[in-house]
Amino acid sequence: MNITIAKFFIITTILLFKSLSFADVISMRSDYWCPYVCDPRSEKPGYMVEIAQQIFEKKGHTVDMRLTNWVRAVKDVRANKAQVLVGASRMDAPDFIFTHNTMGIMKNAYFTKKDSQWKFTGRNSLQNMRIGVINGYTYGDSIDQMIRNRHKSFIPFSGEKPLEQMIRMIQTNRLDAFIENPVALHQALKKFGVAAESLKVAGWVASQDPYLYIGFSPNHPRSREYAAILNRGVEELRRSGELQRILDKYHVEDWEKSKISLGALDDFSPRVLKSSFDLLDMFNARSL
């Protein structure tokens, strides 16, 4: 009897050890970019964060989500100080391992104060303008090249909440415009108590790849495995309806079921909108 109990104890211990050995702490990094990534300590940490948490924790892993500035987030994941980059485009880190399933969609625009007469009509229209951009973000080949070449019109902002900085500076006339995704901007305006009607769209930014992803470190041995887990998990969440339940908390629709095509967005301009708020409201819910 004692031998049988001892064998049972040994087998149970081995199985438990094997189970624990495959349970990882998965470190995720991003900057604050609500509704994609919000405060990880809150009940609404961002819909991408919630999706990742549900999928990985179901597999026995623990998710450690931390905020930093975007440049640091990319560097940390590339150096394997963290394993996951949340809310990235493929252009942000071409060497990373990305899921097949997308995690969102974005369309950047130039935003100005409501009373501004400026419109983006091409490179020449940038002359003598002060335009805020976020350090390390990608905005498409043309703008990225100008930023790399230190075009004097583009002013990079860093830190954990650069969007808030740009909003405050345009209010005090220290910026003429800034580039942002209307989904994130709408959330930020509500949080900072700034009226959406105080801003308007002055032009769209051309984008070769408008999709957002969760990316994995190219230097972590289990990155492809994690990507495969996330891929399957997103498909399961979508089939079960749980994905939309998560998105509903953030007033966002499933991007794969969007009723507005990306091509259609290029047809919008400030002159065809009833008010500046209409555009932001269009992106707020049931539009992307």
UniProtKB/TrEMBL annotation:
Residue ranges annotated for the Solute-binding protein family 3/N-terminal domain, each copy included: 41-254
UniProt-listed PANTHER family: ABC TRANSPORTER SUBSTRATE-BINDING PROTEIN, MEMBRANE-BOUND LYTIC MUREIN TRANSGLYCOSYLASE F
Originating species: Bdellovibrio bacteriovorus
Protein name, as recorded: Solute-binding protein family 3/N-terminal domain-containing protein
Keywords recorded for this protein, A-Z: Signal
Gene3D superfamilies named in the record: Periplasmic binding protein-like II
Keyword Signal: yes
Superkingdom in the source lineage: Bacteria
